[in-house]
Amino acid sequence: MPKEEPGQISYNDWKDRGSYYLHGEHAVFFRQNRRSDELLICIHGFPTSSFDYYKLWGPLSDRFPVAAYDLIGYGLSAKPLDLDYTTFLQADVLEGLIRHLGAANVHILSHDFGNTITLELVARIAEGAAAAKISSICMMNGALFPETHRPILAQKILIGPAGAVFGRLIPDSIFKRSLARVFGPDTKPSVQELEIFAEAFKQNGGKRIAHKLIRYMTERTAYRQRWLDALRGIRVPFRFINGLADPVSGEHLVRRFRELVPEQKDIIELNDIGHFPHLETPETVLDHVLSFFSGNFSSTADDDRPLA
User: Residue 26, SS3?
Assistant: First the structure.
């Protein structure tokens, strides 16, 4: 497979190099560079897709067996109207993907809603109810605690009584403007990136279910203690990378994190960076991600097994 340089992957190329696995009857899109028993999995958040990792993909692929996937209801994955898009379902999908890829030992790089999905998997492992072993976790910006979450206006409307109508009718211009607001002041997404975000959001009729996807916000309140206990119970290497200029989960989240989880001290704070550090300052994030996972992988050797 030709080497991929940071930031040089088009969305069409991303799609063409991907595969699907079936979760029940629903297709879930993923990309994988090679098969291995030990695997780094990249998990995106709301309302985007695995393409969020395109600037990191090449360097990560050079160093590790790595996979990224679209949550069910997102990007290129199935978006059925009659599905209940809970955090628990998303954790089921993640476990199904891990089994499909044949990985017994996983490392996780997560962002936004992906953090909550990761914490649900951690909770299941603590209960002895998950097949996977997690060896290290690196999280990026995401509202880990409902009391620190500051949703943007579009999220508030989506989760309200008019959410179904708003999701179906939201113009691309408002979607793009809302998403751009959570980036740092000097690290806004390009016009092309915003087009891709909108395309992934709308793919397979995604606007029809946007109001269902946002319900994870209420779940964070209902299951706060479960996921806080999971966070406090993490005993594997853990790093938290946070763009402090994020209006949703920036500097105020880091303060609360230190209050609630003082034992986790590996926190990387990025000044003037917003909600998407891996898109806004990929070189800096790569340095922190590579140094973290390089020290935690038992092996980075290639595996000869063919891709799924």
Answer: strand
